[in-house]
Structures are given as structure tokens and as C-alpha cells.
Design brief:
Helix content: 55-70%
Order of helices and strands: H
Strand content: under 5%
Number of strands: 0
Radius of gyration: 23 Å
Number of helices: 1
Shape: rod-shaped
Length: about 50
């Protein structure tokens, strides 16, 4: 591979890595954010509804 082809390949990989990092951050927010936590409602009798 020539030097310009390697540079182009590295730039392409760098863009792909940046894209994947953004995706992982978005998935982490979806999975681990406070809004994603399921809250169980407690009935007055103390029994938790499924």
C-alpha cells in the first residue's frame, strides 16, 4: 500500500471510531440513565405489583 492510501485508510478508520464512540455513548445513556430504570409501584397493602 502506498503512503497516500494508508493515510486515507487511517482517516476512514478514525471517522468510523468516532462514530462508534458516539453510538456507545448514546446506548449507555439509553441503558443506564435514570429514566431507563423501571420503578415498581407499591400498593397500599405493601405488596409490590409485578
Amino acid at each position: 500500500m502506498s503512503a497516500p492510501a494508508l493515510i486515507e485508510f487511517i482517516v476512514k478508520l478514525d471517522h468510523e471510531i468516532a462514530h462508534l464512540i458516539r453510538q456507545v455513548a448514546r446506548f449507555q445513556r439509553q441503558i443506564f440513565s435514570k429514566k431507563s430504570e423501571r420503578r415498581l409501584e407499591v400498593c397500599p397493602s405493601g405488596y409490590q405489583a409485578p
